[in-house]
Amino acid sequence: QWKQLENLYFREKKFAVEVHDPRRISVSRRTFGQSGLVVQTWYANTSLIKSIWVMAISQHQFYLDRKQSKAKIPSARSLDDIAMDLTEMGTPKVSKLVTLEAKNQLIMASNGSLISSGSQDSEVSEEQKKEKIMELKKKEKLLQEKLLQKVEELKKICLREAELTGKMPKEYPLGAGEEPPQVRRRVGTAFKLDDNLLPSEEDPTLQDLESNFIIHQKLVEAAKKLASEPDLCKNVKKKRKQEYADAVKKLQEIENSINEYRIKCGKKPTQKSTLALPGEKIP
């Protein structure tokens, strides 16, 4: 019976009718969907299968219209009233068939189902389609915002690489007609020792210690610049801070060695590390 119909659909050369039979209850635990669903299948060439499907949809629509008209007809009516109603119902029937035919033209030649036709379920499916479209639009908007954010992050990374290498990487995202920005190479932590900074002590041992102090002083300055760079991830920032602390500790140890040697030689100790890093709390 039509009231037991679940779906009518075709896929290329296959036409299937799904009917709900309450007498057939599946006991398998692997059953998905509705239980008691019976599927009848026929195979033929694609054009014939599609024609059978269109006729089945039209027949189902006729059943729905007839059922709806029966619900509206009162119990006691004259033959004249019934004839008038049938005459009036003839015009919309033709228009419905034309509408159904137009809708079928939009269906792909390889597949179709009862929901895609002009049946009563089409109203529900249209609402579901609108909700799905709205949901997809929201997802599209969120993805576009996330994409823009990632593009900006990629630009920052490429600019930092260009500052270090002096050459803009090819991964830098460019818009239509946009020219890559000109970036000057950053000096960074590179430095050169001035020969005048090296002390001219008569004692060669003390002179070596003083030279080592000056070199490590420059290394501390370089480690400080690396640790204070912005936009560093947590692990890299923590590692560079630890390297800066180790460099400061090493500088203090060198100064302690210099002071021990100066006291041993009868000279006054110095405080070069604290003077070299004013306001810095040495770890």
Order of helices and strands: EEEHHEHHHH
The global form is rod-shaped
Q: Give the helix proportion (percent range).
A: 55-70%
What is the straight-line distance between the termini?
A: 88 Å
Low-confidence stretches: 93-98
- Secondary-structure-based class equals alpha+beta
Task: Please list the strands of the largest sheet in the order they lie side by side.
Answer: 3-2-1-4
State the major sheet. Answer: 4 strands, antiparallel
Strand content: 5-15%
Instruction: Enumerate how many helices there are, as a single number.
Output: 6
Question: From the alpha-carbon coordinates, what is the Rg to the nearest angstrom?
Answer: 43 Å
The averaged pLDDT comes out at: 76
Q: Write down how many β-strands occur, each being a DSSP E stretch of 2 or more residues.
A: 4
Protein name: FRM4B protein
GO biological process, one term: establishment of epithelial cell polarity
Domain FERM: 1-67
Keywords: Coiled coil, Cytoplasm
Question: Would you kindly provide a written description of the structure presented here, covering whatever features stand out?
Answer:
This protein is 57% helix and 8% strand. It has a domain of 62 residues. The chain is rod-shaped, with a radius of gyration of 43 Å. The protein has 6 helices and 4 strands; from the N terminus they run βββααβαααα. α4 runs antiparallel to α5. About 2% of the residues have low confidence. A hairpin with a 2-residue loop joins β1 and β2. The protein has a 4-stranded antiparallel beta sheet. This is FRM4B protein. It is found in: Cytoplasm. One of its GO terms (cellular component) is cytoplasm. Its main location: cytoplasm.
